[in-house]
Design brief:
- The complex is a heterodimer of chains A (about 400) and B (about 300).
- Chain A is an alpha+beta fold and about 400 residues long.
- Chain A has seven helices and 25 strands.
- Chain B is built from nine helices and ten strands.
- Chain B is globular, with a radius of gyration of 19 Å.
- Classes of the chains: A alpha+beta (about 400), B alpha/beta (about 300).
Amino acid sequence: MDILRFITAGSVDDGKSTLIGRLLYDSKNILIDQLEAVERASKFKNDGELDLALLTDGLRAEREQGITIDVAYKYFSTPKRKFIIADAPGHVQYTRNMITGASNSDLIIILIDARNGIIEQTKRHSIIASLLNIPNVVVAINKLDLVNYSEDIFNNIKNDYSKMAEQLSLNNVVYIPISALDGDNIVDKSENLNWYDGKTLLDYLESVELENNINLDKARFPVQYVIRPQTEELHDYRGYAGKISSGIYKVGDSVTILPSGTESKISSIEINQQKVEEAFAPQSVILHLEDDVDISRGDLIVKSDDLPKIEQELEVLVCWMGDKPLKSSSKYLIQNNTTQVKVVIKEIDYKLDVNTLEKQEVEQVSLNEIVKLKLKTAKPLAYDSYKDLASNGGIIFIDESSFVTVGAGLIQ
Amino acid sequence: MSKYHLDYLEQLESEAIHIFREVAGQFERPALLFSGGKDSITLVHLALKAFRPGKFPFPLVHIDTGHNFPEVLEFRDQLAEQIGEKLIVRKVEDTIKEKGLREPKGKLPSRNALQTFTLLDTIEEFEFDCCIGGGRRDEEKARAKERIFSVRDDFGQWDPKLQRPELWNTYNGKIHKGEQVRAFPISNWTELDVWNYILKENIQLPSIYFSHEREVLNFDNQFIAMNEFVNLDENDVVTKEKVRYRTVGDMTCTAAVLSEATNLEQVIAEIITTKTSERGETRIDDRTSEAAMEDRKKAGYF
């Protein structure tokens, strides 16, 4: 069995929480006590109609306001697959939380209200899906019950979206007409939408091929922790613990330690105290090297025949998540896997207008804006471009005084 | 299927080990909160995989409410001894005396809420900067919102509106002195995943997880083990039933389920067919209000 991680995106009131509630409810993944709690809570709202959105909006403030503030993770399974859903907020104010959920997703469901068509949040979320390289996109055109199940309206939105998807180079886009409220085409085929002969949403989620999002070619191993028991019998034991972020490592492979550039060979690989001949991403392992070299947390062990770039000047696309604006020449910490390094912003190249996709000149960057930056790191950074190898090209920005995560960066 | 493929339990295991090592790599004084329940026993098993042949870079810490099942305490001590790791126990009893706290009253006087005081005192006493816990997002709707690295302020409080964005597998553990992080390696596991993993790895559990005969009080259709803390009324009915536990908390707030399952396979078979969630069936403390867990977490609880 495998795991599909997906996120639901869309604007406030497009019905994301209702869709997830419906998916869980119709696939019989809701337990009685959880349903009873929703029934109890529904009595105070909506004239007693069962409000499935209450299944996911778990915070007091969310239920009070009827909106989703932060990502809720939900789990369900069918005989075919396990699913981890990131139910993300739609409100512009909480876009950073949506990006949090999107960064680990194999698939994104973009909900569009059939009455409104594509709106700014649809574009913003689609841009984020494109930047993060989410491999599969489902455009769920919702609330068709409110537009007489019109095939024309569905087709118009589909055409509009296709143009944008092409512009954004989105991958594997499919379109499904649904009503989350009534359960049309969520788990069961809808009779109201008999003009649609594609899969229901659940059918699609169960069958979509998970293009291996783990790269097995480029070997990258960020060192997390050095294991040194320092006991009598293990006096010389020195193991580098970490999770292989991409690629395959074999005993005898020539490796380079970055950023120092020291070379050595893998002498042994351990998983759970058992020696193995080879290991691959995303396994958590311990590597041993032939030579006694100076390696600590933050170093990257790569195979010598395929090195990443090692530079101090980077170009980065950034989704800004900080309440304080980002300005040119300000300093931050960035973290790439286990490496942290100080950076200074050299230049703000442009801001991406989420409506027109045009590039605009700006002086500073505010919350939820997407910009391209040039920055300089205090020490050489070993990285890959996000497009080539997402697992080694994504960085977070950390505010040096508050320590809050203030940006998501994709190295170009 | 390619030979370079991990099945879902292996994926979850590797993710959890990664989180353990991030805690070890980023914090000065972490701790592993260990109650002797199945989730924290699973954590200990994962920590062995993450750090052996080295020692754990943290002690095991148990906040003992004084209302625990004796079988579980015994198991806790045995496990700590068997793996040769340090176990720190701090007692709610002592905090109650020291701070003059009000003992809970009523039929089932739970000290669950009082645990928070002892936990925060213990964190202060040892200057822990990160506490690893067995919380899972499938347990409860407030837990579903929790980050893997969840930052708490100097008072141990969680602010759900101010959680740090958490991208990819990059965890930001930078905090100021006095603040703490709660880290959850098995966030993405469900109850069934934990049981399947325990079966796959042949992990030993306290006996109360398997069917046994016990005197129980039928309270609002939940079965509470009879013990010295329960205050019986005239109308209460105490019977002998065959039960097991799905979760292990205090005797006063954790209910047993009727069960014939005496081994892991049978337990898993029962869980697959159950119609009730783990917490819904067994935790009395979550029922007090719609946001009981959220409110406890805001105050510093796990």
